[in-house]
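Service request form, structural biology core

Requester: graduate student, group of Dr. S.
Request type: structure prediction, single chain
Budget code: on file
Notes: please return the result as structure tokens.

Sequence provided:
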Amino acid sequence: MKKLFSSLILFTFLSTQLVFADSKNYDEKINDWKNRSDQAEHWSFTDLSHHITQDLKYSFLNPYHFTGLAVAVPLLVTLGDHDQTIQNKFFPRRPLGKKFDDIMSIGTHPAVLGGATLLTLGISELAHWEKAAVTSGTMLEALAVSEALTMGLKYTVNRDRPDGTSRSFPSAHATGVFALASVAEIYYGPWVGIPAYSLAALSGLSRMDANKHFASDVAVGALIGTMIGLGTAKYHKKIFSKVFLLPAYDPDTDETGFKIISPF
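Core staff response, request fulfilled:
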């Protein structure tokens, strides 16, 4: 009987401890969830809208960008008048080849580009690669803004593709790759920017070679991607260009001092 009574007391004690522990963990989880919810709400309704506004401002209200846009528009109208003539030089001959077109179609698809940049952002954050994280985050934002604008134009204009399907104008592939190339150019300079733009140009040509887009579709997509990529990168580079002065120690010389760090 004593053993049974002792066992009941021990069981009651342990059960009480577990209940209190679970209650404490539950309260902590609730508070943590509320904090995360508040952060998500602030990001969604304040930070995100501010970023998009600044991205568009730096993209289209920059004097150099605005001048470039004013020059490009009449050239694009002229290009559109020769779309079919240019298209006939690509299809059905397909000088780039079907295999190349298929590889570029998959590799530079907006969903693939978005997934790759998101994965890079996650890895960079975990590895504490500050510049890589800023770059991939900027690329993801530029891609989202530019593709949203492109998709809006696609459904508004609803131009037929060369192969007879719909929503040709502008090219989403061209928009995406040129947006990422522009961010790379701003953050890393021409040594990275030139190869990135070359790859973007090949992607655009492959879309014409595959009979999926006219030349003006590709050109307008490239213009949208370039302008938003440049504007987004310039805005982010500005807000992340702060330098920090930190104390430093050199064990080899036994000297102390300061060092300047910056992601750019």
